[in-house]
Amino acid sequence: MIHYCLTGWTPTVEYYDCRFEVLRKPLGFERGAEILSDDFGAAHAYVEIENKIVSVGRAHLIAADSDGSQADHAGPGAAHCPAFGPLSDEENRPAIQIRQM
């Protein structure tokens, strides 16, 4: 079953467990790195098979003053993602970013 949750939803422990196991643990991150400070303001989707969450993802609004550049992750040695040129065109706003898939 596919679930969609709009902003204001607090992800469940099971949702975070999937995010950690798939995205953070393989990169050597400590438990807790799967929780992002702006999760409450993001839209989330997840897939559940036989009552087990097997896939997660989220989308958030890119701030109007952001060019899209950012660190790849919060840990040490993170690569810096460059600015995304199309965001400089006002016609491409508002814009979202899909992450944590």
Quickly describe the structure.
The protein has 101 residues and is an alpha+beta fold. It has a domain at 2-65 and 95-99.
Structure description:
- 12% of the residues lie in helices and 29% in strands.
- With 101 residues, the protein is α+β, with helices and mostly antiparallel strands.
- The protein has a domain at 2-65 and 95-99.
- Strands 1-2-3-6 form a 4-stranded antiparallel sheet, with helices on one face. A two-stranded antiparallel sheet has the order 4-5.
- The longest helix is centred in the first third of the chain and has 12 residues, at 13-24.
- The chain is globular and about 45 Å long.
- The relative contact order is 0.20.
| Number of beta strands | 6
> Major β-sheet, in short?
4 strands, antiparallel
Helix content: 10-25%
Mean pLDDT: 90
How much is the radius of gyration in Å?
Answer: 15 Å
Total count of helical runs of at least 4 residues: 1
Quote the distance from N terminus to C terminus. 17 Å
Strand order of the largest sheet: 1-2-3-6
Task: Tell me what portion of residues adopts beta-strand conformation.
Answer: 25-35%
Structural class: alpha+beta
What's the SSE pattern? EHEEEEE
- Please tell me what the overall shape is: globular
Q: Low-confidence parts lasting 5 or more residues at pLDDT below 50?
A: none
Would you spell out the secondary-structure blueprint of this structure?
Layout (H helix, E strand, L loop, with lengths): L1 E4 L7 H12 L18 E7 L2 E10 L8 E2 L8 E2 L14 E4 L2
Antiparallel strand pairs: 1-2, 2-3, 3-6, 4-5
